[in-house]
Amino acid sequence: MSMATTIRADYTSALTQSAGIGRCTRELFTALRSILPADVRVELFANKNAVIGGKRTPFPVRHLPLTERQGIIFWQRVRVPWPIEPFVGKADLWHFPDYLLLPTLSGRTILTIHDLSFLVMPQFAHRKLQQFLAKAVPRSARRANHLIADSESTRRDIVRIWGIPEERVSVVYCGVDRRFRPINDNEALDRVRDKYALPERFFLFVGKIEPRKNLTGLIRIFTRLVEAHPGLRQHLVIAGGKGWDYEPVFAAAAASPARARIHFVGFVDDADLPALLSCADALVYPSHYEGFGLPPLEAMACGTPVVVSDRASLPEVVGDAGYVLPLEEEQSWLTALLALAESEETRAAYARRGLTRAKRFTWEAAAGALLMVYWSVLGGLGG
Question: Model's pTM, two decimal places?
Answer without folding.
Answer: 0.93
